[in-house]
User: Fold this.
Amino acid sequence: QVQLVESGGGLVQPGGSLRLSCAASGSIFSLNRMVWYRQPPGKERELVASMSRSGSALYADSVKGRFGISMDNAKNMGYLQMNSLKPEDTAVYYCYVPYRSMNYWGQGTQVTVSS
Assistant:
C-alpha cells in the first residue's frame, strides 16, 4: 500500500502563489510518475500537470506558464508550484501516483483564490 498526503493549500489573493506538496509513503520504492488533478466546485476532476521520472512534464493549457511540477525521488515527494493564481484556479487539488499497476490518490487539499 502507498499513502499520499497533500499539503500547502489555502486561501490566496488573485496573483498570489502557493506551493503544494505530495508526500508518498508506504510500500513505494520510487516515484515513476506524479500527476496533479483538481476539481473545481461543481465541476469534473481535471488534469493539471504530470511529470515522469525522466523529468518530462506536461501541463493543462489553463496553467501553462503559471504552474510548475517537480519531483524529488530521493524523498518520494512531489510539488506543484502555482504562481499568478486566478479565481478560476479555486479547486480541491489531488496528487495521483500510478505504481505497480495500482492507482493511488491523496485526500486532496483546498485551494481558494479570492480577494
Notes: The radius of gyration is 13 Å. The chain has a mean pLDDT of 95. The CA atoms of residues 17 and 83 lie 4 Å apart.
